[in-house]
Amino acid sequence: MIEPVMLDSHVAATRLAGLLKDRRSSRSFTAHPVTKAHLSEILWAARGSSSETRRTVPSAHDVHAVSVSVAVSRVGNVDCGLYRYAASDHSLSMVTDEDLHPTLASACIVDEEWVKDSAAILMLSADFEKVNAEFAEQWPYGRRGERYAWLEAGHISQNVYLACAELGVGVTFVGGVDERLLPQAIGNIALLPHNHELLGLMPLGIARP
Ligand SMILES: Cc1cc2nc3c(=O)[nH]c(=O)nc-3n(C[C@H](O)[C@H](O)[C@H](O)COP(=O)(O)O)c2cc1C
């Protein structure tokens, strides 16, 4: 029997170690808004630009296939509505001023109430056709890109978790969404960017202690 190699205990004093310890999923929010500064920081961490050419998140072929939309309900100085995040100039463009919280919450497979209570909901999505075409030469041909999109969403969501841990904002990644219950459009406005499929929701807000 080969003895396991016992590893050194982790360096608890690093900032990263502190954030990793504090990271958790929160599903109970107060009625307080999150600030615009909070949302800005969270979106930058999610997939913002860290330099002229680089992003805060890794991405196969650097294509950054995953988009982030935000349904805002209670964010200081940001009107209620649905927005698309642009990393290039770190901005939000409003798509509709409708409050989408009830719609998004009702598509969650389990326990939708806390989702409705969140201050904002990040929506991660990707165009599978486009990203599959980008990696068409890699086995399994025509499906590799989709895998990379899911993996990229995982990186983004961990960045969001760590940013929220630092800011004292509560968040949970919700993969359990029945997309069949989501409308394609609100009026004549598409819920997701053109041809995108939903990868997950991240409701966030000020967590109840
Ligand atoms: C891929 C994935 C899907 C998840 N889906 C849901 C979900 O649908 N609803 C939910 O409340 N939490 C969901 N979670 C959060 C997990 O339940 C949570 O991470 C787990 O219970 C561990 O708790 P912690 O994040 O506080 O460590 C999901 C997490 C991951 C990574």
Oligomer: single chain
What is the domain total for the residues? 1
The main β sheet shows up as: 6 strands, antiparallel
Number of helices: 6
* Order of helix and strand elements from N to C terminus: HHEEEHHEHHEEEE
* Rounded mean pLDDT score: 95
Classify the helix fraction into a percent range.
25-40%
Structural class: alpha+beta
Strand order of the largest sheet: 3-2-1-4-8-5
CATH class: Alpha Beta
Estimated share of beta-strand residues: 15-25%
CATH superfamily: NADH Oxidase
CA-CA gap between termini: 47 Å
What is the gyration radius calculated from CA atoms? 18 Å
Strands, total number? 8
The kinds of small molecule bound in this structure are: flavin mononucleotide
In CATH, the topology is named NADH Oxidase
Shape: globular
Give the low-pLDDT segments.
Answer: none
Task: Give an overview of the whole structure.
Helices cover 29% and strands 20% of the residues. The chain is α+β, with helices and mostly antiparallel strands and 209 residues long. It has one domain: NADH Oxidase. Strand 1 (66-72) and strand 2 form a beta hairpin.
A few lines on this structure:
With 209 residues, this protein is of the alpha+beta class. The protein has one domain: NADH Oxidase (3-Layer(aba) Sandwich).
List the helices and strands and how they pair.
Layout: H1 15-22, H2 36-47, E1 66-72, E2 81-86, E3 91-96, H3 101-106, H4 113-116, E4 120-126, H5 128-134, H6 144-167, E5 170-171, E6 185-186, E7 189-190, E8 197-205
Antiparallel strand pairs: 1-2, 1-4, 2-3, 4-8, 5-8, 6-7
Helix pairs in contact: 2-6, 5-6
Flavin mononucleotide binds at residues 24-25, 27, 172-176.
